[in-house]
Design goal:
The chain has nine helices and 13 strands. The strands form three sheets. Strands 1, 2, 3, 4, 5, 6, 12 and 13 form an eight-stranded mixed sheet that branches. Strands 7-8-11 form a three-stranded antiparallel sheet. A two-stranded antiparallel sheet has the order 9-10. The model has no long low-confidence stretch (mean pLDDT about 95). The structure holds N,N,N-trimethyl-histidine. N,N,N-trimethyl-histidine binds next to helix 8 and strand 11.
Amino acid sequence: MITSKIPAVVFTPLAEEVLDGMTASPKRLPPKLFYDARGSKLFEQITELPEYYLTRTERAIFQQFAGEIVEQAGTNLTLIELGAGSASKTRILVQALARKQLRVGFYPVDVSASALKAAVASLNGNIRNLRVHPIVADYSAHVPLLDVPGSKLVLFIGSSIGNFETEEAVQFLMRVRGSLAPGDAVLLGFDMVKNARLLHDAYNDLQGVTAEFNLNVLGRINRELGGHFDLEAFQHVAFWNPKMSRIEMHLESGLRQEVWVRDLGMKFKFAAGERIHTENSYKFTETSIAKMIEHGGLHLERTWTDPEQWFSVVLARV
Ligand code: AVJ
């Protein structure tokens, strides 16, 4: 008998995401693809830009209220941070906890191994009673079920929740809730609706770092999938969409072109002016926050904000 084996084409998760998004209409790429080593570095640079008020505003809230926040959250806490990145703001909360507790466990979860390395390096050693347990995982797929001593405080800060569609955010909160026991808590960061100019500028910085960050997703496809994107042939586009209460980021093709991606064995056609939708960054109001948390099956316990109410930090419970 003659048998022949036809090798199945097995795509990597990245290849799947790219194939999916580039064959959709309109074309799209999910924002989690931004965060390879280079993208994570560029995001760290964004957080220090004068126009990008989010990080410094949330950090100021933590600096002012860290004691209150950890006090309100409970006793004998273990910190779990979803999408930790370099965890530079979390440090403030960790320090407040380390002053209050004999031992502090910190589980940063992130898709970027390189960002986690930076997190561990900046935290370990400095605080004697802290143990850091980094976890490389895509938390959007599943929330890790960790068995830790005491109660959990799950951090999802930096307005990372703004990348989700409303229904996705609600489902995400329900999954977080499913990983918690009574007495555990969640700390969420929300970027608030504000003056359109301020919102626009935060995603259109003068130095062009956000443009580089956006374009890096094409660079990543070139590097990891043998793509032939000409980064000069695409333009960063970011604008405030007031009807949807979100900043949208796109990459716009400057001309009619075809782009070959070797590992997908496909070429993608672009019309002049055609866009790839790369990110939504939702902005919130007190009302939209309360609704989302309630729909996620959680109780909003307390909110901390800055004097201009540009950013909100919310403690919620099962
Ligand atoms: C990490 C999702 C909060 O939406 O502001 C920054 C990502 N994109 N500049 C945001 C981002 C462009 C950021 N989040």
